[in-house]
Amino acid sequence: MKNPLVVLASIVACSITIPILISIVSYDGIEATPQNHKKTVISENVNKVINYQKVDKKSPIINVYNHKLGKTQQMDIEEYLCGVVAGEMSTEFNIEALKAQAVAARTFVMYKQKQGNSSKHKDAVVCTDYRHCQEYKSYEELKKKNGSEWMKNSYSKIQRAVKETKGNIITYDNEPILTLYFSTSSGKTENCEEVFSQSQPYLKSVDSPYDKNYSPKYVSTLKISNKDFVNTLKRSYGGIQISENNLSSQIKILETSDAGSVEKIKIGNKEIKGTDVRSILNLNSANFDIIFNDNYLDFIVKGYGHGVGMSQWGAEGMAEEGYKYYEILAHYYTGTQINDLY
Fold first, then answer.
1. Do 336 and 170 touch, CB atoms closer than 8 A?
2. Are both 115 and 155 inside the same structural domain?
């Protein structure tokens, strides 16, 4: 029989060593990127660990103006966010992209609340019209359109994204930010001031390399005859002087943004904003090149949307490459942090 003191010492040593080994293994499993997963670092921001004090409070009730019904409704903000994420992003997207969208949408509400109610909905923080606030689809709308099976399998994924980011908002200098977002970048996002004539320190141009491989809207084209192009411009600008012949000598791109979008273009005797050309011709973005042919023009367009803030397809690409939602947000919103409100 072994010496009882030796046995006791061995038991004590094991009781100390085993938990340490378990904790080391567990820590490696949580923090480390899997060996077989290739993850390209696209910004120094995404490597920052986001730490915030977790708050566990009841989610607030907000006033939402439902433009479809023409009335203001009281909603739990988390339930409202499920309708926003369902309206703004496909449920086919990676859960981390959906989480990033949920946090961006929640932050937008808090930003609007701090700014004060809009003249378009004086008694509500936000509305359901995407042209003014954010897209929103009610539970009833979604169920009627997609059916019970979709609600069970897909809507539950949205609910998870909202629930697992409960209370999270994006801040700059401890204030909620204006979380602009859009569908698809041209490979880089835009500086806010180059699109909306206002500068925000957190809405700066950053690389967005995954859009090209993930978004079906990365490149689009518009073919328009010389005649239709000239007539369209004349309807929009009464004093414009332009003819169908030799258009290449009458059109010149004057200025482009850091991301490649057209800021100013000269057409005939008029200098026009690239965003106005986009609107007039219904282009997917203001990032375009023009190919001149004998009787028609080809507009080659990159990206979809205004290009400022978070690219949704860029977020999807990052998520598929292994980035977490807070890394995605740190990349697209420069110098920001995650705070927990409730």
1. yes
2. yes
Q: Do both 146 and 50 map to the same domain? A: yes
Residue with tokens 């010492």: 9
In a domain, 17, yes or no: no
Which amino acid would we find at residue 312? Q
The pLDDT score that the predictor gives to residue 91 is: 97
**Number of domains present in the structure of the chain:** 2
Helix (H) / strand (E) containing 22: helix 4-31
Beta-bridge mates of residue 176: 171
Q: Where on the phi/psi map is residue 130: left (φ > 0), alpha (ψ -120 to 50), or beta?
A: alpha
**In 10 A of CB 97, how many CB atoms?**
27
- Please check whether residues 227 and 329 belong to one and the same domain: no
Q: Is the pLDDT of residue 36 over 70?
A: no
Decide: helix, strand or coil at residue 106. helix
Q: What pLDDT, on a 0 to 100 scale, did the predictor assign at position 39?
A: 59
Same domain? 158 vs 141: yes
Question: Cα(97)–Cα(3) distance, rounded to whole angstroms?
Answer: 60
Q: Rounded to whole angstroms, how far apart are CA atoms 320 and 342?
A: 29
- Which residue's structure tokens are 């897209």? 135
Please, what is the angle between helix 312-320 and helix 325-332, to 10°?
140
Q: Are residues 68 and 173 in the same domain?
A: yes
The strand pairing partners of 181, in sequence order, are 310
pLDDT digits (tens, 9 = 90+) for 205-252: 999 999 999 999 999 999 999 999 999 999 999 999 999 999 999 999
Q: Which domain holds residue 234?
A: 219-302
DSSP letter string over 231-246?
HHHHHH-TT----STT
E-strand spans in 30-130?
61-66, 71-76, 126-127
Which of 151, 127, 152, 134 is closest to 87 using CA atoms? 134
Alpha carbons 240 and 248: distance in angstroms, whole number: 16
CA quadruple 72, 75, 81, 86: dihedral positive or negative?
Answer: negative
